[in-house]
UniProtKB/TrEMBL annotation:
Residues 49-116 form the Expansin-like CBD domain. GO terms for cellular component: extracellular region. This is Expansin-like CBD domain-containing protein. It comes from Miscanthus lutarioriparius. Keywords: Secreted, Signal. Pfam families: Expansin_C (PF01357). It is found in: Secreted. The keyword Signal applies.
Length: 120
């Protein structure tokens, strides 16, 4: 009986460990593309996401989905200067939308990397 209790406990611990490892995601980071300027924002993500949109300071709603090209690179072209801080919205592969408010500061610079705090 002790043997079956030990086996059961071992299986339970192994399953708990697998669940813990499997539920950990990767933190989504945003890198400002080197081609970004006051009227162009190029965002490079470290993981695959979709339906990306942004809301610059003063905007009442999020932009239409940004164009993705190449993979994991999303671009906003604007006739007016893009004002920060900028909020970021995306569709998670697991379903649903996530919003990260003011993740990109007003003084964003090409090459800068910003952590979103979102595990995907």
């Amino acid at each position: 009986m002790a043997s079956s209790s030990s086996s059961f406990l071992l299986v339970a611990v192994a399953l708990a460990a697998l669940f813990a490892v499997g539920s950990c995601g990767t933190e989504l980071t945003l890198t400002i593309g080197k081609d970004s300027s006051s009227t162009k924002l190029s965002l490079i993500t470290n993981i695959a996401i979709s339906e990306v949109s942004v809301k610059p300071k003063g905007a009442t709603d999020f932009s239409d989905d940004l164009k993705e090209s190449p993979a994991n690179t999303f671009t906003l072209d604007s006739k007016e200067p893009i004002k920060g801080p900028i909020s970021f919205r995306f569709a998670a592969k697991a379903g649903g939308y996530r919003v990260v408010d003011d993740v990109i500061p007003a003084n964003f610079k090409a090459g800068a990397v910003y952590k979103t705090g979102e595990q995907v």
